[in-house]
Amino acid sequence: MGTTKKKYPVNAKDYKLYEEIGEGVSASVYRALCVPLNEIVAIKMLDLEKCNNDLDGIRREVQTMSLINHPNLLQSCCSFTTGHKLWVVMPYMSGGSCLHIMKSSFPDGFEEPVIATLLREVLKALVYLHAHGHIHRDVKAGNILVDFNGSIKLADFGVSACMFDAGDRQRSRNTFVGTPCWMAPEVMQQLHGYDFKADIWSFGITALELAHGHAPFSKYPPMKVLLMTLQNAPPGLDYERDKKFSKSFKDMVAACLVKDPKKRPSSEKLLKHPFFKHAKTADYLERSILDGLSPLGDRFRMLKAKEADLLVQNKELYGDKDQLSQQEYIKGISAWNFNLEDIKNQAALINEYDEISNLEEPKTSNQQNGISDNYSDAKSQDTDDEIINLESSFASFPTPSLQALKGCFDICEDDVATVSPTEQPPVQLSMKASDQETDKDDDIKQLGRIKSLQKTSIPGPRKYMSGSLLPDNVRSPKKLMSNGERDLHQLKFQVERSSSGPIQHIQRNSLTHSLSVENVSEGAVVQQKGRFRVTEADLSPKAPVLNPTPTIGVPAASLLPSLQSILQHNTVQREEILRLIKSVEQTPSSSSGNAAEHVETGNSDFSQIPPTPRERELHSQVIQLQQSLGSLAEQLQKQKMKNVQLEKKLSDLMKQNSIEE
Ligand SMILES: Nc1ncnc2c1ncn2[C@@H]1O[C@H](COP(=O)(O)OP(=O)(O)OP(=O)(O)O)[C@@H](O)[C@H]1O
């Protein structure tokens, strides 16, 4: 790919910013000119101060984007920080995402040959990613980008995971990441972890999304989507209107949407499915889906305006009370609140929502696990019991420190100006190219330098995103207004995401919000950044993923997530050992009591009492766990020492800095 050979400047002043072309949960994307290369690019801007707790996600995205090299994957050209923003420079994909194209011109989805062509390209990208040990974890139409010539690239590695993280290729993941509608059941369940087969599920959901114009369950709030995905039979091409689709398409979707991940094909195998014989060339895509489309920026603006209108209409129709309910509902869901009372309240709101929503969902013929698969059945099951069951199905994980966001990127340039913590002006983008340079320079000056890593992050008003655009006929359960002023200008910046898109991050400034973000010690904490996202410490007995060994200049704060993860992991392992010891004690054979004593006293000599096979197995597990506990403690110790050293360096540097200033 040509982009890898060119040297893209890593300085904001070398780019002229044009119009906004996309928004996600965590980022805004702009079209821009790379002045020295005279090339149009797209720049994704992430506000590091607002991406609470998602240092790992951002780092992963930047790393993955720079390392991948495949024609169907969006590779970054370069990335750098300016003020508290991270800029990721990428090739500009002028067609925008498939989601945007559908919303603009194909509200009921694409024709089958188009779908086959798009999906084959995405699948090629997945084959590459999986072969290199990556799980994408966010495959959906919004992340399939189309270029002017019909070429396709899969984007957004914000939640991708590397299977080699801990040096173990086969390791399943135990993190809770993704976008609800596209999320595989095993990812939601968090029982046995998951692997690259989770992408195959999302791929199947994406196929349905491209066929219908929206993902299954997309009109439901996130909690409901989780319930439905877990309880209902997998969705498929079973609608009356799906008769137009070929058997091979239906087969391909059915192969992906099997609840048991082991029964899903690998991406490589799926690529050989007869359905992809219908795939055509990029040329064909250009003619069939790009023809007549207005420029990306215009489309984006129109779609946003439409969303804002919908929101205003909703306000008029349902009033503030309902909006407040929705807000409360989304807040609970977004924060993945395990407070039972809150969840019950949320469940009540789900029912409320259902009553007014227009049910057009399918009655699938196949039943799985003896659970009814039609929506009205699922609706009637919105009981407290379900919520309690669901609550027990999910694990909760600790959250990295807020401060950990800083200092992650040592690729900084241009961090020049100074600003107070409360000063966080948005980047103002002029539509006139000639004005760009001045405006941008001013902005950069305003954005300022982050003086201290210890500085408390005081987020400005949250710019709520609208990445996934609502189907027109759907009343938004997810778009809401703040408690504050509700003028249109504010609306623009506070539109929530569709539930068919990632769940919106909610600023935790409400007294009613009972979830403690940083309460690591209780282990009941969930990290969340727009998606359900619970990472770092997992319940797997395997070693936690450590941040790479810090290099000089990496702030000590960035080690905190690893340390927390190790601590958490330690606790989990300790509990596991205790549990095993208890279970040895409870083994009915007369010998087991003795065996437990041996274990408890650290004496593993079982020679005098012949152990049962179960005791042997438990014993060896205990030994393994003890060993790994030991090595974790060692790692923790090392990390602590490094932390101390780095903190010292850091404070020296800060002193030096303040002297210079
Ligand atoms: N290189 C690009 N060229 C054109 N449009 C782009 C490009 N990158 C992103 N976009 C547009 O911007 C939108 C948001 O970008 P992106 O998905 O990377 O942000 P995000 O915050 O990671 O989103 P998500 O909500 O999926 O997590 C995309 O859906 C797409 O429409």
UniProtKB/TrEMBL annotation:
The molecular function terms of the Gene Ontology recorded here are: ATP binding; protein kinase activity; protein serine/threonine kinase activator activity
Q: Which residues bind ATP?
A: 44
The UniProt record lists the keyword Coiled coil: yes
Name the Pfam families on file.
Pkinase
| Sequence segments annotated as region (Disordered) | 360-380, 419-441, 457-480, 584-618
Domain Protein kinase, which positions? 15-276
InterPro entries recorded: Kinase-like_dom_sf, Prot_kinase_dom, Protein_kinase_ATP_BS, STRAD_A/B-like
Q: Where are the transmembrane segments?
A: none
Coiled coil region boundaries: 629-656
UniProt KW keywords: ATP-binding, Coiled coil, Nucleotide-binding
Q: Please give the PANTHER family that the UniProt record associates with this protein.
A: PROTEIN KINASE SUPERFAMILY PROTEIN (PTHR48014:SF10), SERINE/THREONINE-PROTEIN KINASE FRAY2 (PTHR48014)
The similarity annotation says:
Belongs to the protein kinase superfamily. STE Ser/Thr protein kinase family. STE20 subfamily.
* Protein name, as recorded: Protein kinase domain-containing protein
